[in-house]
Amino acid sequence: MSTGRPPVLDVDALLDDPATRIVVCCGSGGVGKTTTAAALALRAAERGRHTVVITVDPARRLAQSLGLTELDNTPRPVAGVADGGGSLHAMMLDMKRTFDETVVANADPERAAQILDNPFYQSLSSSFSGTQEYMAMEKLGQLRRSEEWDLIVVDTPPSRSALDFLDAPKRLGRFLDGRLVRFLGAPARNGAFRLLGAGVGLVTGVITKILGTQLLRDVQSFVGMFDAVFGGFQERADQTYRVLQAEGTAFVVVAVPEHDALREASYFVDRLRAERMPLAGLVLNRTQRVLAPELSAERGAAAAEALEASGEHPLAAAALRLHAERVRLRDRERRLWERFTAAHPEVGVVEVPALAEDVHDLDALREIGRVLGDPGPVS
C-alpha cells in the first residue's frame, strides 16, 4: 500500500481569504454536498465573512437546522450564528421562480407577461432536464452582481452525473436554439411553412397528430416571443461561466469513499482543469475512524475468537469484532481514495468522519465545519 500522503486542503485559509468570493460544492448525488456547503457557510460566517448559501433540495433536518422551513428564493438571515463579525443568509433555490425572474429581466413587461402565461414555457421552466442546474447558475449570477455578500457558497443540484452541473447551461441553450424548436416555431415567425409547399405541410400534419394542435400552437407562440429574449439568456449564462473561471471562485469537490463517487470526483477534477476553473480540493465525507489504529483487523479478530472460545468477557469480544470490521472497512476506503490521490497527487484532501446521526442543528454543522477547518492529517 502506498505510504504517500496527499496535501491537506486548508479550508480555513480558503474561507478567510477576502479574495475568495464564491465557493462551489460539487460532486455526484448523495455524497453530502448540501451539508458540506452549509457547514462551510456557517464556519465562514462565524469567522467574520458576510455569507450567503444557496441550498438545493436540502433534507428536512438540515433545512430546519438552517431555519429554511419558511424560506424561498430570497436569502434570509439564519438565527443562532455565533457573533464573529460576520453574518449568514440562506435560501432554497426555486427553479421556476428564478426562470421567471430571468424572463422579466430580459423582456419588456408585455412580452414577459406573454411568455410567463404560455403553457409550453410553464412546462419548460418547471421540468426540463438541466433547468435546475441552469437556474442555480442564474441565481449565483444574481447574487454576485448584487454585491450584498462577500462570500457566496453554492450547493449544486443533485445529478446523476457530477458533470451535469457544467453542461446544463449549454444544453438548455442548445435546446432553445435547436432545429426542432425552430422548425416548430417557424410559422409563428414568418409563415415559412406556407411558402415551402405541401411536403412541409405533410410533416407538420404528422407533428400536429403527435403533439396535438394546442401544444403545437403553444410551442410556436413561445418560440416567437422568446426570440427577443434568448440572447439575454445566452449572455447571462456566458457571464456566469466566466465568473466561475475567474480568480476568487473555488470549486470544492465532495465525495464519499466509494468507487462510483470517487470515479465521478476524478472525472470532475479533469473537467475543471479542461474548463480552466479553479479547484480548491476534495472533501472526503463519511470516512471510518478507528480508536486503536495500531491494532490490525487480524489481531482484533483473533483476540475476539480467543475470548469467545473461553466464554469470558463477551462484551470485550464483541468490541474486538466490531473493531476488526471497522479496520477492514477503513482499509478498503483507503485503497479507494489512494487511487484518486495517485491520479491527482496535487489535489488537497480533507477528511470528514462519518457521524453517528444525521445533521439536525447548527451545533452539528458547526462540528463538521470544525473538522473541515482543523482536520489533522488524512489517515
TrEMBL record:
Residues annotated as domain ArsA/GET3 Anion-transporting ATPase-like: 20-286
Short name of any one Pfam family annotated for the protein: ArsA_ATPase
Name of this protein: ArsA family ATPase
Organism (species): Thermobifida alba
